[in-house]
Specification:
5 copies of one chain form a homopentamer. By secondary structure, chain A is mostly beta strands. The first copy, chain A, has a single domain, classed as OB fold (Dihydrolipoamide Acetyltransferase, E2P) (Beta Barrel). Chain A is built from no helices and 6 strands. A 5-stranded antiparallel β-sheet of chain A has the order 4-3-1-5-6, with no helix packed on it. In chain A, strand 3 and strand 4 form a beta hairpin. Chain A is globular, with a radius of gyration of 13 Å. Chains A and B meet through strand 1, strand 2 and strand 4 of A and strand 5 and strand 6 of B. Strand 2 of chain C pairs antiparallel with strand 6 of chain E, so a sheet runs across the interface.
Chain lengths: 86, 86, 86, 86, 86
């Protein structure tokens, strides 16, 4: 999974019907730069600045109540920035 | 998902039968360069210069009425370039 | 999808049984370099120097008559190098 | 698969229900740098500093007793750093 | 698919039960460097120094007799280093 920080929200009025009810967040990977920012769907309610765990590709479907064409989903909000053993 | 800008159209006469009816767009990721351009299928009708959300890999199938060998699909047109909290 | 140029053919005598009948091509992504070359399976008959569209991962299976362990398949031959709006 | 070293643990209280019972580890790929660190789920019990094999994407599901939205799973603990023939 | 050279073997005693019978090889992509080395499962019997074709992600399952959590599998041994048309 990718560990990232929520940086903003993406709004789309013209979109696929089966995306209704999903929020789209800009997520910047920890240790990544602006170039690495991607968009993840969210149903947990992550806020700007929160650290989140994101799963990708087909495994997103196990975080949804119905199939939807999204390849990145927030699966959890991280309690604290994890310590790294050197 | 990838946030990108539509840069052009790709035409292919000799192609798989189950690709009929799909439009193919050149998409440049936001914050990405020319080297990162990829091709996404589109059924929404995104135009040159529009900002789009693209899903990838197997999750493309949830944006199609029938199975097709495409690994990137436009799932929505973004209303405005999203603001990024620093 | 990846837009790439066919650069060569890969021959393999000792291979999985369910790969019989597939041709393997070296494909260099457009705007990519030698380091980015990958191998795609082909059933359309793309030739050296032709520009092709390649789909990846599990979606390759929708371009096959039977399941096969290939993660990249040529799905179309591109008519002309696409123009890019700047 | 990715060969990596366990660097830390990620804790998440607010998370998807079907993630209960999984431990989340920070994993740094061998030959990779800090920027490449990712998070893998673990049920084997890998410890900090151990060298692990990690599988990704949909194939994680074959390492689970039930479907879960995780795209990286520890599948084994490596006995010794592998020797590389030059 | 990735074209790579077998560089070594990875041994893991503590591993998932459904990995028994699979050999794990260090594979370095052709034109890639040490940083790009990854681990692929093998049932064909590729040896150190041999050039192999590797498929990734979910498509690995079509190269197995039973489902297993591996995201890279050797699918063939390449006869000769392929010539590249410039």
């Amino acid at each position: 999974m990718i560990l990232g920080t929520v940086k903003g929200t993406v709004y789309s009025t013209r979109k696929m019907d089966n995306l209704k009810g999903l929020k789209f967040l800009m997520v910047q990977p920890v240790n990544g730069g602006r170039k690495d920012v991607f968009v993840a769907a969210d149903t947990i309610g992550a806020g700007i600045g929160e650290l989140v765990l994101v799963t990708t590709d087909q495994t997103t479907q196990y975080a949804l109540d119905y199939p939807a064409p999204v390849d990145a989903m927030v699966i959890g909000i991280v309690d604290n920035p994890p310590a790294m053993e050197s």
